[in-house]
């Protein structure tokens, strides 16, 4: 669209009459006066143009106004919203850092001459005539520099919660930060004292885990929290576009689908009192779920494709960098699926958008800002977007046996893969164009996997295998596992008999006990289906570059620790 002002023609790139974002175009006159042109009858924002503005600059200003629209609690012009008094309208630090007014008039036009920032003091430097405070609010790894008077800085210390009102202007020292907040009013909302356990100096992750209620105030931990939120949003969008139905499965269950017996019992027994039958609230023993798989299988035969992101609980006494007693699993099931390839493709379709988003998002920039291994972190993200390697379990064992690497546990076909084996496979097999990709290990021995997995069409010479896979990455090793499920009644009963879950191939309802409902699914309209479970905390930890899965959980629980 072209706008004519005197002898000047202003072209607004990309703006048709219907798409025009501006109500008026404001053009600064040579002598300081301003002229206005009405371009469209709307209440949408103004576009500010200096006399020297080019068409390209006009387009940039138009895009800047779009960013203003995204400012939390702001109107289209960037002013704090005055419609919700109780919300104490304010602007986030992350949004403010993106605003780059060129002069006072531009700042006033964008509504940055009077802004409100709510946040916490990350550091403060007091000088004779002024003080400089670094303000963070959890929206960015970087802090906002606020310029205070000595009177305003009095009584302010590290960790204090403050509300700042002021103007956003070019910085006096642009080498440190291009813009800063000149504070006209400071409200001390929440003071601290010398007993505050968080300090400006470095504090180890181990120490911070002792105070999970406070550690999210550390900028890096806040960045991990935002990353988790972004990842959940991407997963939800991806699966929704693939016509998956999100569901919530029960936390209290009657079965242990993994068959490992490492479950938490639900009981109403009083402390110190021996547990008896009367303490079974549900008339029989129940447990905290170890997986949502069995329930998802039931639901998938109703609506086709289902998924859930739900907590799981395992009473493992493993005190490693990869284990938690309470963790989140992303699980999905698909009906009318006859190939394990479809299940593996689904996992890749979910994780690839998360990795790609990190290359362009503010969250990704924050993770890089905090990392000492930036190139390695970028390599992890890029590796997830490449083709993933695939190897059978039998091939993996042969590679391990042929390796000159000395393992603590000798690789044996019937013994399974130990953590050291998984790390070796992830590092050696996953190399792709100088990047390490995730690795699928497929077709494990039947005796190493749960009863519900479908037998492979062709078994290995060493023994029978099943159509299943584990997904391995460096450091965190196994992050996902999936399989085709046995959908036929008699083969399922035979597998249960082999595991001594039932006494015969024609068990009674009492003998089936808590698995009766699961067996019933094979009697009426059962179809081929498959699915997976993904350790959500582990894959996020791998993408974030943290060494311990406990950093990815706000309130981690592991053997011996359940704080808060």
From TrEMBL:
<comment type="similarity">
    <text>Belongs to the class-II aminoacyl-tRNA synthetase family.</text>
</comment>
<protein>
    <recommendedName>
        <fullName>asparagine--tRNA ligase</fullName>
        <ecNumber>6.1.1.22</ecNumber>
    </recommendedName>
</protein>
<dbReference type="GO" id="GO:0006421">
    <property type="term" value="P:asparaginyl-tRNA aminoacylation"/>
</dbReference>
<dbReference type="InterPro" id="IPR004364">
    <property type="entry name" value="Aa-tRNA-synt_II"/>
</dbReference>
<dbReference type="InterPro" id="IPR045864">
    <property type="entry name" value="aa-tRNA-synth_II/BPL/LPL"/>
</dbReference>
<keyword id="KW-0648">Protein biosynthesis</keyword>
<dbReference type="GO" id="GO:0005524">
    <property type="term" value="F:ATP binding"/>
</dbReference>
<keyword id="KW-0547">Nucleotide-binding</keyword>
<dbReference type="InterPro" id="IPR002312">
    <property type="entry name" value="Asp/Asn-tRNA-synth_IIb"/>
</dbReference>
<keyword id="KW-0436">Ligase</keyword>
<dbReference type="Pfam" id="PF00152">
    <property type="entry name" value="tRNA-synt_2"/>
</dbReference>
<dbReference type="GO" id="GO:0005739">
    <property type="term" value="C:mitochondrion"/>
</dbReference>
<dbReference type="InterPro" id="IPR006195">
    <property type="entry name" value="aa-tRNA-synth_II"/>
</dbReference>
<feature type="domain" description="Aminoacyl-transfer RNA synthetases class-II family profile">
    <location>
        <begin position="225"/>
        <end position="556"/>
    </location>
</feature>
<keyword id="KW-0067">ATP-binding</keyword>
<keyword id="KW-0030">Aminoacyl-tRNA synthetase</keyword>
<dbReference type="GO" id="GO:0004816">
    <property type="term" value="F:asparagine-tRNA ligase activity"/>
</dbReference>
<dbReference type="InterPro" id="IPR004522">
    <property type="entry name" value="Asn-tRNA-ligase"/>
</dbReference>
<dbReference type="InterPro" id="IPR012340">
    <property type="entry name" value="NA-bd_OB-fold"/>
</dbReference>
């Amino acid at each position: 669209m072209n706008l004519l002002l005197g002898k000047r023609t202003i072209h607004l790139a990309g703006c048709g009459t219907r798409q025009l974002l501006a109500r008026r175009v404001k053009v600064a006159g040579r002598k300081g006066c301003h002229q206005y042109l009405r371009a469209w009858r709307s209440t949408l924002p103004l576009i500010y143009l200096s006399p020297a503005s080019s068409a390209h600059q006009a387009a940039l200003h138009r895009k800047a106004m779009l960013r203003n629209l995204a400012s939390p609690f702001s109107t289209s012009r960037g002013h704090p919203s005055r419609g919700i008094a109780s919300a104490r309208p304010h602007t986030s630090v992350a949004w403010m850092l993106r605003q780059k007014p060129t002069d006072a008039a531009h700042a006033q036009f964008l509504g940055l001459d009077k802004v409100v920032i709510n946040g916490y003091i990350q550091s403060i430097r007091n000088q004779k005539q002024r003080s400089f405070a670094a303000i963070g609010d959890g929206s960015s790894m970087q802090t906002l520099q606020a310029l205070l008077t000595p009177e305003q800085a009095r009584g302010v210390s590290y960790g204090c919660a403050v509300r700042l009102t002021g103007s956003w202007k070019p910085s006096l020292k642009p080498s440190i930060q291009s813009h800063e907040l000149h504070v006209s009013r400071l409200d001390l909302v929440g003071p601290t004292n010398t007993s505050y356990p968080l300090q400006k100096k470095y504090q180890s992750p181990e120490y911070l885990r002792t105070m999970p209620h406070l550690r999210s105030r550390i900028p890096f931990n806040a960045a991990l929290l935002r990353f988790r939120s972004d990842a959940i949003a991407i997963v939800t969008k991806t699966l929704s576009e693939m016509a998956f139905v999100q569901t919530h499965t029960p936390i209290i269950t009657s079965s242990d689908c993994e068959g490992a017996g490492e479950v938490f019992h639900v009981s109403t027994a009083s402390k110190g009192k021996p547990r008896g039958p009367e303490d079974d609230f549900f008339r029989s023993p129940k447990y905290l779920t170890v997986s949502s798989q069995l329930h998802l299988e039931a639901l998938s035969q109703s609506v086709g494709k289902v998924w859930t992101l739900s907590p799981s609980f395992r009473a493992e006494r493993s005190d490693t960098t990869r284990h938690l007693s309470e963790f989140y699993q992303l699980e999905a099931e698909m009906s009318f699926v006859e190939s394990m390839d479809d299940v593996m493709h689904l996992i890749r379709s979910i994780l690839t958008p998360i990795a790609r988003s990190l290359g362009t998002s503010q969250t990704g920039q924050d993770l890089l800002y905090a990392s000492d291994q930036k190139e390695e972190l970028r390599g992890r993200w890029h590796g997830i977007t490449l083709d993933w390697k695939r190897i059978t379990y039998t091939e993996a064992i042969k590679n391990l046996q042929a390796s000159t690497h000395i393992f603590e546990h000798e690789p044996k076909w019937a013994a399974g893969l130990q953590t050291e084996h998984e790390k070796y496979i992830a590092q050696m097999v996953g190399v792709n164009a100088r990047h390490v990709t995730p690795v699928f290990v497929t077709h494990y021995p039947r005796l190493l996997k749960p009863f519900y997995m479908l037998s492979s069409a062709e078994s290995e010479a060493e023994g029978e295998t099943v159509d299943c896979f584990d997904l391995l990455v460096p450091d965190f090793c196994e992050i996902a596992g999936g399989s085709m499920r046995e959908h036929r009644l008699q083969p399922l009963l035979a597998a249960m008999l082999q595991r001594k879950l039932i006494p015969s191939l024609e068990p009674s309802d009492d003998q089936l006990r808590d698995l009766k409902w699961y067996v019933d699914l094979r009697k009426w309209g059962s179809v081929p289906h498959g699915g997976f479970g993904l350790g959500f905390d582990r894959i996020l930890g791998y993408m974030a570059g943290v060494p311990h899965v406990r950093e990815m959980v706000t309130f981690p629980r592991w053997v011996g620790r359940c704080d808060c």
